[in-house]
Amino acid sequence: MSGAPDPERPDSDRLWSVAEHLDDILGKIRPLEPIELRLLEAQGCVLVEDVTVSVALPPFDNSSMDGYAVRTADVAAATRESPAALTVIGDVAAGSGELPAVGPGEAARIMTGAPLPPGAEAVVPVEWTDGGTGAGPAAAMRAHSAAPEGAGGQVLVYRPAEPRAHVRARGSDVRAGELALPAGTVLGPPQIALLAAIGRATVTVRPRPRVVVLSTGSELVPPGEPLGPGRIHDSNSYQLTAAARDAGAIAYRVGAVADDAATLRATVEDQLIRADAVVTSGGVSVGAYDVVKEALGEEVEFRKVAMQPGKPQGFGRIGQDGVPLLALPGNPVSAYVSFELFVRPVIRTLMGLPSVYRATCRAVCPEGVASSPAGRRQFLRGRYEPPAVAGEPGTVTPVGGAGSHLVRALAHANALIVVGEAATEVAPGAEVDVLLLT
Ligand code: AMP
Ligand code: MG
What we know:
It is built from 9 helices and 27 strands. The protein is an alpha/beta fold and 438 residues long. It has a 7-stranded mixed β-sheet with strand order 1-19-21-22-18-14-17, sandwiched between helices. The protein is elongated, with a radius of gyration of 32 Å. The two termini are 38 Å apart. The structure holds adenosine monophosphate and magnesium ion (MG).
């Protein structure tokens, strides 16, 4: 492969800016078609329907305390010295279907969440009673939970109760017919709880994209196997699979394919059946074994992007369904930075998520950066410390150098320091743009 301009594609040798490359990619990505998923499968996905409530929450008036369901008139004059003595007519546990009617002078022992029985107007907590023991509130609480049956005895109530005291009213959370969650909501644990509470077993959401990850290189050996001469462990397929999952995808790690164009082509074609996107690493520069270019050059456009690391990038849509394929460079740091900048937004656009980009901020770089390539946007690995005082900038310190093979430094970074195209250095103590990786 040579870097000479292709006469068929006069643009092929031009330098693309990071933004141009990203815009070109995202301009060709549409969110996935919605499907119906069971609640836990829909976690992290975007709801595409307005969910309305079919049953009120709570569905019936119920007790917010363990105690006694009473008529307020019966306890209106109750004091410690002169308690109201009520006949306990039965127990109401959570889930009780048949409810005893509470008449004048009567009380029903009731548990948290149990339906308020007919006739009762309030619940007095067990702490306000003797628990049916005649022995005061502390014993009352023990007795209340220990006693097998509440019926037949008597309870002393020491305080009056307002009407509806300790009663959670039907519909006080949400009423039937109200909107529970609007379309566009990202389903986290509380939203899933609400859906379950109103009885929804499935919801219509945009699914997580299935992302197939494969690395290329005849030098690659899976971790766990010994290295022969000149061989290295395949870290990219693990890194990119983990990153794809982290971005929200269901990721399939295919592993390393040898530097053979026919094998690579066949492997990619085999994978298309289960792919909403394909990510490859390696084989995109101008070396003799740059198989990705050779195997996929018809559908995938390879270009130079004005960034460091990660200058060579490939993007195209392959197969009958036009599955997006991003071909990333092979150096592990280049692959990672490329993933963060280009693949993560693709995954999140496919999911229809409202925010597809990582958060950015400004931070002081006490060490500065001695030199940065002109005309290229540089992404250095850094450790970001949030500010001690809210509102002031945090600090960021480069870890490792600019070398795109420095995996350990990458593993100790939590941010990328962005040095703009025009800058050739950052003075110590100057502010820089930071892309937060967590
Ligand atoms: P390439 O772009 O294929 O020439 O790869 C560039 C550099 O990254 C070479 O030193 C490769 O050995 C290394 N590399 C490529 N793929 C991987 C991988 N999957 N895991 C670790 N290093 C890799
Ligand atoms: Mg290679």
